[in-house]
Amino acid sequence: MLQPYRDLAAVPRVPGLLTWTMLGRLHLTGTPLAMSFLIAGWTDSYALAGVVGAALMAGIGVAGPVRGRAADRRGAARLLVVTGISYGVGLTVIAFIPSLLPAAWWPVMAVAAFVVGLSNPPVIPVSRAVWPRLLKGPALNSVYTVDATLTELLYAVGPLLAAFLVALVSPAASIVISGALATVGALGFAKMLSLAGQSGPVPASTDGETRRDRVGLLNTPGILASLGLALCLVAALLMVDMTIVGWAREVGAPILAGVLGAVWAIGSGIGGLVAGGLSGMPRLTRRVLLNLLGVAALVPVLPPVFDPASPWLIGLVLLLGGAAIAPAAAAANARVGEIAPPERRTEAYGWLSSASTVGFSIALPTSGFLLDHGGPSVAAAGAVVFVVLGVLLAVRIPAPKPVPEPALS
């Protein structure tokens, strides 16, 4: 089981690329929390904080495919440097707007957040697109699993670090440090790409099928279904997060939300490590089905179906169900890289990031409505609906056809 990880570690530059891509993503998991504190403290309105946060995410989502296509056509390293510096400077400016303008000027902050989001460095799509050019076989499956597992860890660590900085210093300082992390991560990742010989544009393939694919990436069989799957999985996972938070607040023990979230992340990490060590092609539909079972198991252990609910039982369900998260995400990410034309993989992963952002935006109000009108078990059932849609979409994603890699100069 450990052999794929040994193969992965033996490939030059891959451990360094993994390290820097995770550092380059860390800011994304903590910035929304710091932004909420900053805007709510400035305007005395959590609703306005949500508007500004949504504007930032909208900018990031819009820029995803554009940045990905630019990386494919003109190379990723220079793009990462320019966007990394721009994004870091932009977040620093945002951090000081509340001290310079009255709260009535909050629309200026929303516009600024959207513009800054447009300059978000495309670390995620670039990193996911580069793995098929460096790795093959079990090692390639393993790197996508490690990627998904570490991303789960970032979503546990990032908000904690941001909250610590907010409490210890200020929300503005937390945002400035998020910007600095974005810049340092993007620059370090760009340097590692150069050392690995992957900093330039991806040469176009010459076969007829790939030339037709270049006419429209979204027309490639399976791409739209993959985007829909990403949207559904992200929406479902966020709805489960919100369900846990809502139940913890209902029972007057907010700390349980953090504890149960950590248990869920641990389950995902264990599942990811096991799945990454398995040989053979991952079965996407099977992994999404296992994810469905894990989410569905939450419905009968939450109120009003099971009241009062037991935190021990909820924790056990989250631990076991969480084991399917990272494997499903890894298989979905890998499948996009397999079915997308090689010279447009980064753009494909940019679209995938945008789809995830849309899932995030849909899940927040949906989970809030279901919690208000039905309770935690109903909100969990809403997450089940999204994963069911994900299963139906996974079935429509074709198995990859062998595509010759373009020669790299």
UniProtKB/TrEMBL annotation:
Localization: Cell membrane
Parts of the chain that traverse the membrane: 45-64, 76-97, 103-123, 144-169, 175-196, 217-239, 251-276, 288-306, 312-336, 348-371, 377-395
PROSITE patterns: MFS
This protein's name: MFS family permease
Keywords: Membrane, Transmembrane, Transmembrane helix
Top-level lineage group: Bacteria
Membrane disposition: Multi-pass membrane protein
